[in-house]
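ENTRY TYPE: paired fold submission
RECORD: A
CONTENT: sequence, then structure tokens
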Amino acid sequence: TQDELIVITDIFAGSVNNEFVRFLSRPNFHLLSGLNLPLIIDLLISAGEENTEKLISEALTSAKESIQYCNQTIASAMTIDKDF
């Protein structure tokens, strides 16, 4: 099998992302935007996964879930603590 290439850019439709869009028709090329550290970590940890599209989908879900508005998250946690 051929190697899979996953490219992650910071901003969708930004200049770097636009440069890589021209490679989308290549086999085994995957372009992601919205760079964040949990996404990169998940992809690196699971690099040996056979199904690259599944790997990417799961990493994107995990990365989205890692984004928090700390004011609300901490306030909610404090409210729960007070209830117990």
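RECORD: B
CONTENT: sequence, then structure tokens
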Amino acid sequence: KMAFQEESPIFVALLARCTADDPKRRPTAIEIEKTLDLYITVFNEIILKKHPSYMNLSTEDKNEIFIAFYQKFHPLATEFIRKKFPSEFLDNSENVPGVKVDKDAGNQIRIECPMQ
């Protein structure tokens, strides 16, 4: 199992799932993509539109702003994802935020995601 020298202040649950010993507990690539897309979209709408100088800030300042955004937005994102994607899309949905892909009876992939 991977071990990080420093714990990330963001995406802790997602990182833990990505490095899970049991491959069945790991998120799919689509789940990771859609989860990150949600954060990117909202970050762009909230931070970049209100603070156009963000891109010119130092890495430390960018990190501070992003971490503050993440801490405020994460509970809302988690709730949104849980409501948008019923429990059958999620493994252990009470504890794990994210998006899962479902296959219908014809083995066709179904995914609803407004974050495209």
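NOTES ON RECORD B: The chain has three helices and two strands. The helical segments are 12-18, 29-50, 59-84.
STATUS: closed
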